[in-house]
Amino acid sequence: MASEIPESILIIGAGVFGLSTADALSRDPDYKDTKITLVERHSFPAPDGASIDTSRIIRADYADPAYASLALAAQEQWRGDFGADGRYHESSLGLTADPGKEDYVAKSLENVLALEELAKTTSGGGSIKPIRVLDSPEEITSVTRTGGSSGTHGYLNPNSGWADAEASMRYLYNRVRATNRITFVTASVTRLLFSSGPVPRVLGALLADGSRLTASLTILAAGAWTPSLLDLRGVLRATGQILAYIPLTEQEQAHLAQTPVQLNMSSGMFIIPPPPPTSSTPSPEALERGVPRPHAFLKVARHGHGYSNPVTIPYPEPPREGERQEKTITISLPQTSPSTAYASQAIPSEGTTACRTALRSFLSPSSPIPSRPFTHTRLCHYADTRSGDFILSFHPAYAKSLFVASGGNGHAFKFLPVIGERVVECLRGRCPAEFREKWAWPGWVEEGKWEGDGSRGGAKGMVLEEEMRREKGKL
Ligand SMILES: Cc1cc2nc3c(=O)[nH]c(=O)nc-3n(C[C@H](O)[C@H](O)[C@H](O)COP(=O)(O)OP(=O)(O)OC[C@H]3O[C@@H](n4cnc5c(N)ncnc54)[C@H](O)[C@@H]3O)c2cc1C
Q1: Can you give the residue ranges of the FAD dependent oxidoreductase domain (predicted)?
Q2: Pick the CATH number of 2-320+331-449 from 1.10.10.10, 3.40.1130.10, 3.50.50.60, 3.30.365.10
């Protein structure tokens, strides 16, 4: 048993995967003698990281029963200390669709109804509220209370909601720091260090200042930047997703705070309500970054196929025996503006139009909100895999010296309270049976043939530079 515990571990990236892994390792007595270092390219929290934002949907509404029950386990923690102090809001989720997307909605409904039944038998169902099926736009309007209706059918799940993403990440960060078990380093990893020989090992990481961090085990959790450090063509790629914030009056904020998250599975568009005005006192961190009222916005975004951003980089790995060494590879990587407030940046006008159109359907046709200028827009990046599954696996080429914890695919945030423990289980060869295949190292599949998990909306195949050129983003 002791021999599987490495002397030292280097975690790259302090997002959901990296930080929750550090948390799980710091609490696990088996790792009490292991030296653990976490390196992150920004001082925490990374402004352009996928895990840092005002809000993320917390739902067990999945077409896949394995993710639905893992999300339920996470939700139990969101309802406790993890979500305390306004970090979690159980505002309900209206999950809807237009004709043609019946399948995902029906499977998701089936899973949440099954979870509802299970909760009734295991916990008496005290805190479980009944799910309401919605068969027409009128029924949708009656539950959203925003006067709008997006989609023709769906359901309202009062057991889902949203979390303040940045506040939750700060909560976990402080909890991990308080253990004094992890050495935090702020530095950018420029490449992994490899040993030579027929079976190379990863020895750690080379940093931008030329120094090295070495470890017996490296855990790569660099989110959508993961493909900058390994050749992950056909395995993992970054896609940019649109986010926009529109300002609200205090009265609008007070009203919308009482309304559900609305997610249309056909367009992929969703809105996340603000918290009530009483909890919108600016945090010292927000004031520091020049954002006066961080929550007095309505957030609109798209869970879509996203934009790719092809970039050519030097080949990041050593040559493999018998293979011709390529000098460079072209892969999709994030394009962000970390030095601006809330990492704000222009997005393609196709995206701003989609956000406005969505607001017009989610809100009442007479609402003045959709016509206002956006306060800020941003691209937030998914680390996408072909099936929508995470990768929690050793890299097959490096003799168990490199573990990859990535592939959030736009849905990992809700698992923040539980995913670190699953990472450690997979590291120890004890991956939960229902996830063993899903989280295993995926084989190469040509990117044009990735099947996805059926949850994405919007157009396929958009390239960021082309969309930006089409017409400069108008706000
Ligand atoms: C627009 C958007 C909406 C989403 N909505 C939801 C939602 O509603 N519900 C939900 O559950 N999930 C949602 N997600 C998904 C969820 O936020 C992500 O799956 C999750 O945050 C990914 O975490 P991560 O650790 O992989 O990546 P990140 O949070 O991006 O963390 C990676 C970290 O690695 C660091 N890093 C990168 N390269 C280097 C390097 N070379 N050296 C050192 N450090 C490095 C980065 O700075 C970053 O902090 C959404 C994601 C996006 C983008």
Answers
A1: 9-425
A2: 3.50.50.60
d(CA 79, CA 82) in angstroms, rounded, equals: 7
Instruction: Measure 347 CA to ligand 1 centroid, in angstroms.
Output: 19
Cross-strand bridge partners of residue 97? 153
Domain boundaries, the chain: 2-320+331-449
Q: How many helices (H) and strands (E) in the chain?
A: 10, 24
Residue 398 predicted with pLDDT over 90: yes
- Count of CB atoms within 10 A of residue 440's CB? 16
CB 378 within 8 A of CB 347: yes
Residues whose beta carbon lies within 6 Å of some atom of ligand 1: 12-18, 39-42, 46, 49-51, 56-57, 188-189, 221-225, 241, 243, 301, 380-383, 406, 408, 410-414
Q: Write out the DSSP string of 245-277.
A: EEE--HHHHHHHTTS-EEEETTT-EEEEPPPPG
Residue with tokens 């916990």: 123
Structure token digits, residue 271: 């809105």
Q: Does residue 292 contact residue 280 with C-beta atoms inside 8 Å? A: no
Q: How far is the CA of 200 from the centre of ligand 1 (A)?
A: 29
- State the burial class of residue 349 (Cβ atoms within 10 Å of its Cβ: 0-12, 13-18, 19+): middle
The radius of gyration of the chain from alpha carbons, rounded to an integer in Å, stands at 22
Whether pLDDT at 1 is above 80: no
What pLDDT, on a 0 to 100 scale, did the predictor assign at position 475?
A: 46
Cα–Cα distance list, 105 to 45, 94, 152, 260, 390 (Å): 34, 11, 11, 17, 22
Name the residue among 136, 363, 132, 374 with its Cα closest to residue 255: 363
Distance CA 268, CA 95 (A): 10
192, 402 Cβ separation under 8 angstroms: yes
CA–centroid distance, residue 7 to ligand 1 (Å): 28
Question: pLDDT > 70: what percent of the chain?
Answer: 93
pLDDT value at position 125? 55
Nearest to 427 by CA among 19, 21, 8: 21
Confidence of residue 10 (pLDDT cuts 50, 70, 90): very high
CB neighbours of residue 224 within 10 Å: 30
Contact 422, 392 (CB under 8 A): yes
Determine which helix (DSSP H) or strand (DSSP E) holds 470, and give its type and residue range. Answer: helix 464-470
Cα of 303 vs centre of ligand 1, distance in Å, is: 14
Instruction: Output the pLDDT for position 2.
Output: 44
Distances (CA, A) of 42 to 14, 15, 339, 346: 9, 11, 10, 22
Residue length of the chain: 475
Tell me if 259 sits within 8 A of 145, measured CB to CB.
Answer: yes
Between the CA of 117 and the centroid of ligand 1 the distance, in Å, is 33
Pocket probe mutation, ligand 1, options 56, 176, 185, 190, max atoms within 8 Å of Cβ: 56
